[in-house]
Amino acid sequence: MEVINTLGRRKTAVARIYMKKGSGQITINGRDYKEYFPLATTQYVVVQPLQIANAEGQYDIKVNLDGGGISGQAEALSLAISRALVEMFPDVRPALKVKGLLRRDPRMVERKKPGQPKARKRFQFSKR
Hints:
By secondary structure, the chain is α+β, with helices and mostly antiparallel strands. The protein has a single domain, classed as 2-Layer Sandwich (Ribosomal Protein S5, domain 2), CATH 3.30.230.10. The protein has helices spanning about 35, 40-50, 70-90, 95-100; strands at about 5-10, 15-20, 25-30, 30, 60-65. A five-stranded mixed sheet has the order 1-2-5-3-4. Strand 1 (about 5-10) and strand 2 (about 15-20) form a beta hairpin. It starts with a strand and ends in a 30-residue tail after the last helix.
């Protein structure tokens, strides 16, 4: 079996993964995913596509994660894993699609505007 290479993004986080047949080890930037994501919720987000496809513990995943925060990185990795699973097994696409794991979340941080302290917040108005 060859190595499958996919990409996932969320906010400013980018996850590039290399997925191949193996023992189920997920390595993120040279560290185990449980060490990289200490919270149980982010760990669940990462392995959710594998659980839905019944492929947990069957594939080794090497990940390069860059940018963003912890939750953005976890969701970017989830999208990349979902795309790799669909590339391998086209029959798992409907199950992943129902859970919303194949949709790239388009929400981004709104830019700061000039003359304001933040994107929408205004400086205090003084009538006199």
